[in-house]
Structure formats: C-alpha cells, structure tokens
Amino acid sequence: MKIDSISRKQSFIGIIIVLVIVGLVYGLYFYSQRNPFEAVKEPILNENSISSAPQVYISSNVLQQGDTLLINIEGDDLESEISGKFGSTKIDFFKLDNYEGLVGITGIDVKKESGKYNLVIDFSGRNKFEKEIEIIEYEFPITELLITEELKEKGYTPLRIVENIITHENVILKEIISIHTPEAYFNTVFINPLGEIDIVGAFGNIRTSGNITAQHLGVDLDALVGTPVYAVNAGVVRFSQNLNTYGKTLIIDHGLGIHSLYLHLNEFKVSNGAKVKQGDIIGLSGNTGYSIAPHLHFSIKVNGSNVNPLKFIETMKK
Ligand SMILES: [Zn+2]
After folding, report:
1. Ligand 1 centroid distance, CA of 206 (Å)
2. Can you name the residues that pair with 221 across neighbouring β-strands?
3. Residue 257 alpha carbon to ligand 1 centre in Å
C-alpha cells in the first residue's frame, strides 16, 4: 500500500517534470520563431493609472530603420492637451476612422541610428506615459546602379545621376517636404497608389557603381506606361514638375508633415495646388527620367523621414 502510493507519487512527479520540460522546449521554440516586429496589441496602462486613465497602444516596441511607429490613445478624457515625443521628434495626435480616440505617427528614418529611444506622452502634465522603443539597424542589400544603353545615349552616367540628385533634385524636393501643414487633410487610413502591387525595386537598397552609391528611398512598383496612379490619401498637390533624374514628379502634402511622392510619371492628371481626395487619379505611370523600365517609384516622408511606404500603409491598417 505504502510502496504503491510512493511509486504513484513518483510517477506523478515524473509526468509533471516531463510536461515542464516539453513546455520549456516548446516555449523556447516559439520564442526563437517569434517575429520581433509583431505589433504590440495589449494596452499599456499608465503607471499611475486610475480606472479612467487613457490607454496607450503602440504598433511595436522593436522597430527597424525605415519603419513607422503608430500610437493609439484611447480614453474618456482626450479633449485636453496631449503632447508626444519620440526621442527629440514631436508627435502630432489626430482622429482617424477605424480608430477610437487619437492616433499619432512617427517615421523611423532609413538612416536613423540604432539604439533605444524614449516615447513620452504627456497628458496635460497630469499623467505621463513613457516607453522605451528599440531601433534595430537593417542591413539593406547592395545592388548595382544599372544604366541601359538607351540611357547612356541620353547622357545618363552614375556620377551625373548621383550628383544631380544631391545638388539639385533632392534640394528642390526637400524644400517641398519640409512644409509642415499643422492639420491633417485626411481622416482615413492610406491606400496603395496602384491597383496591383508588384515590387520590382525594394525600399532602402543601396545602389552602387564603382565608388558611387545612392540609397533607394522609395519602392519601385511594376506598372505599364499609362497605368492610373491614385492619390494614397486626401491632400494638396504641392509639386508637379519634370525633373532630369526623377522624371515627371508629383508630391501630395497630406498634412501633419506627411508627404507622398510619385516619380517617373508619363502624365500629370492634376495640377499644382489642386486639392485631391483619396483614390483620385493624379497621373499615369511612365518611364521618364532615370528609369530602366516603366514603373512607378513611390515614396512617403513623415516629417522628412524616409520610411518604407508600403510598411507605412500596412502599419496604419487595423
Ligand atoms: Zn525607385
């Protein structure tokens, strides 16, 4: 009787030990397989939280260069002054369909130094939310800066392209992108600029030719000449000009420092200063400027930060 109960007890303990080991192995496996960029879905309560305190949700607490950080604040008392900062960058909060409460967006520039940054949200000095966000360096692939025979005949060389971008075209675009319209022209999440998305040139690739390098600050999307290009959200057209390298270029200011850029267009369908709605056809895609095949180059800038535009759109979707 006694021996029997001891052996039963032993086998019970044995089973428990086996279950714990199996659990640990599975746990470690899933931990190693987890996606570090997965959204943080659970609410993060304020440290001094009271039942009515606002709740802060963040899209992720680990980001890589070129990512977008979305902050959603829910609560009863959001009418009062709320200010936010990510590192030294100010965050604007606004209303967005599909989201309760307020939303804030900040872009992690493709060249932002890796490390830990503080996200601080101040609720009129009454409550403060603080969270450490880690930015991981991303090793962008190195690809060749290609020039076709046709482009060579037109006078394009790697040196001329890069020099023209640095000294001329980026200077013009920077001036437009630095416009910070304090209110949002949009109230809904962003959409894609083409009906079909097929990436032919990845965001962030470092294109080189000899000792000349240029980082690809947008995404190249396959599109036949004449494919309709849609406004990714409501805004005002701030620029529509033909540039030597970027070709026919159009920029939409969506407010709050968010701009979308469409390069190598064949034709503009809206003019500078026009107010556009989401989904309006703003132009037809093409092959103008330094472009080795018909495509749409699409970029999004958030307060001047170069972010992966498709990831930006994806992060905002709920
Ligand atoms: Zn491109």
Report:
1. 11
2. 199, 296
3. 22
